[in-house]
Amino acid sequence: MLANHVSEAEKIFKLGELDYARIKITSMTNYCTGCHARVPKMKKGFSSSTKSQFKLPKKPSIVDIDFLFVGRRYKLALKGYNQLIRRSDKGALKSEEYEHLFWQKLVLFSRIWRDPAKAILSFEEDLKADNLPTGLPSRVKTWVAQFKAWQMDGLDLSAIGDIEAVRITTAAIDRIAASNDSAMKAPTLIELLRHSGGLYELLFETEQVNLHPQILQSLAKPLQWISLQDVYLKRCVTLFPESNAAPGCLKGYKSMRDKKFPVRKPEFVKATIASLEQKLSEQKVKSK
Questions:
Q1: Residues 116-170: tens digit of each pLDDT
Q2: How far is CA 84 from CA 97, 116, 131, 235, in A?
Q3: Residue 94 CB coordination number (10 Å)
Q4: Which is nearest to 73 in space by CA: 34, 46, 100?
Q5: CA-to-CA distance for 219 and 200, rounded, in angstroms?
Q6: Are 62 and 84 within 8 A, CB to CB?
Q7: What is the DSSP letter of 210?
Q8: Torsion, Cα of 22, 70, 238, 169 (10° steps)
Q9: Closest of 184, 183, 80 to residue 122, by C-alpha
Q10: Which of 87, 144, 189, 214 is the most exposed, fewest CB within 10 Å of its CB?
Q11: What whole-number distance in Å separates Cα of residue 174 and Cα of residue 47?
């Protein structure tokens, strides 16, 4: 995925779209973080062990801690985020830096670990800090209330079948995406993070491959600012052209590219769309 990101940046640069190429390159760290925030507590695959050369410095910077996050050393990363948030020296961090720290913690508790109980304890401890920017404490209190509501609903995806789990999570994501209520301050944010995390874990864990197209299509809808939207949609069409979801995935991919390139699409984008269209056309011929 990262190789694809760099390759796209190179193609855009060669087309002379220098500003956009620069944005692609400078966003690589966020891209890594966003991708690693999509591989939750799986039984198999990527290890999240903290027993390695990764260590938390005595006086960590945000960059130090984000490196731990990207390396999936989540417990160490959380320790670092807490240390910075709860420090006593006022003015040490900018308002946007606090926003980043709290966002990372929100992703950890709601999307990766999906642990409302620990989230409540951690954020309530954060609220004791007297150096938080104006307006942030009230938002954190709202999050705590949402995590408490989550605790009460009793939904445990691991206790139900994969088909039912996909039905519940995709329905929730579709409802939220349709409401256009996915901004960082939105009341549905924690619900969106929770269900998209559960859905992504199902993508890795389920042995029912026929569920993958529906999962990929739903994952492409929320959280566009950190979503691997284009990857999900392309995989949906490329790997599952025979599925009912494939035409919708192609339509979604075209719409996404229309928004990103409203005036003129780069040649590599045109080629990708043509390739996906050909994939569906070939599938229609096979089905006859």
A1: 999 999 999 999 998 899 999 999 999 999 999 999 988 888 888 899 999 999 9
A2: 10, 22, 11, 39
A3: 10
A4: 46
A5: 7
A6: yes
A7: G
A8: -120
A9: 80
A10: 87
A11: 31
Residue 239, CA atoms < 13 Å, CB-side half-sphere: 15
The tokens for 275 are 């390739």
Q: How far apart are alpha carbons 81 and 91 in whole angstroms? A: 16
Instruction: Indicate if the alpha-carbon torsion angle 75, 80, 84, 87 is positive or negative.
Output: positive
Q: Where does residue 158 rank: exposed (0-12), middle (13-18), buried (19+ CB within 10 A)?
A: exposed
Check: CB of residue 188 under 8 Å from CB of residue 182: yes
Rg (CA), the chain: 20
- Indicate the pTM of the whole model: 0.78
How buried is 155 (Cβ within 10 angstroms: 0-12 exposed, 13-18 middle, 19+ buried)? middle
Per-residue tokens: 20:
């956009």
Give the tens place of pLDDT for each residue, 163-195: 999 999 999 888 877 776 544 556 678 888 888
Nearest to 127 by CA among 116, 112, 138: 138
Give the list of residues 6+ apart from residue 23 with CB closer than 8 angstroms, or none.
none
Q: Find out whether 109 and 118 touch, Cβ atoms under 8 Å.
A: yes
User: How far is Cα 245 from Cα 280, in angstroms, rounded to an integer?
Assistant: 11
Specify the residue for token string 């609220």.
127
**194 DSSP 8-state letter:** H
Q: Where are the alpha helices (DSSP H) in the chain?
A: 2-14, 18-26, 28-36, 62-70, 74-85, 95-107, 116-126, 136-153, 162-178, 189-205, 212-219, 229-239, 246-260, 267-287
User: How many Cα atoms occupy the beta-carbon half-sphere of 63 within 13 Å?
Assistant: 1
Tokens 């695959």 label which residue?
45
